[in-house]
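thread: overnight batch results

M.L. [08:02]
morning all. the overnight job finished for the chain we discussed friday. pasting input first so we're all looking at the same thing
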Amino acid sequence: MRGETRLLARILVAGLMNVGVYALLAVGFSLIFGAARIINLCHTGFYMIGAYSMFLLVVSRGWPVLWAIFATLVVVAVLGIAVYKLIIDPLREHEATVLIVTLATAVLIQEVLLILFGGHFRGMPSLIPGYTTVLGVRVTYQYLLTLGVVAVASLGLWAMLQRTRLGIAIRATAQDREVANLMGMDVTRVATVTMAIGVALAGVAGIMVAPIYVLEPHMWQPPLVTILAVVVLGGLGSIKGSFVGAVILAFAEVLVVFLVPQGAFLKAALALGLMLAILLIRPEGLFGVAFEGER
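M.L. [08:03]
and the structure it wrote out:
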């Protein structure tokens, strides 16, 4: 009985950790899709930039953690705006081209990091060292910090979308870009700001996992597959759907890893399988709506 309780606790802890990371990435991805109507395949590239930036500033340069976090978020947001204005926006009418150039941008980020840091595995100390014990399972304070940051970021995003003029503009643009433009909203500016917010959320995820995961220049690839599955499961452009999809897929992965022999090798297959199943059964996802052209 004690062993079963400990296994359940380990599944719960690992699942919540994955939920936090997937939710931050998926919400940012969905936010960008909703306002700008683009599928940004370099989204997890910004997550990787956030992780490597923290490593560079804290470990290599010795910056205080708070200053490093602030600088990392600024860098990620500025790079996100630059990518949108210089690469994505001029091509936004050509959806297939946007997919290709955003994927190419992610590969470019990977190659730049390979040049700067090499292909070696790297790690950094916890932002908050130490651990506590929950049902016989060690839970590091870094895990708890990650969950707390996810909760604060989620509440802050909800408040911004519901209570501010920018949030109203983002929601209006997501619902109908043409009508929002006719109502006097600068939809291009809204999309640019949304891009900055979305990639900043990816940067927050990178900051939080930098002390937990191994850093290497290909770390953007596995979460990209997972995030695509999460947003398809929840519904493209749906913030609520992104959270629900993150919970479902995160715990499904953890159960496979803990309960299936060699389950760690099946995570990507599980994500892709769920994505294909949802596309076949309900193409718009659990909480998504039909695309504008299909209404």
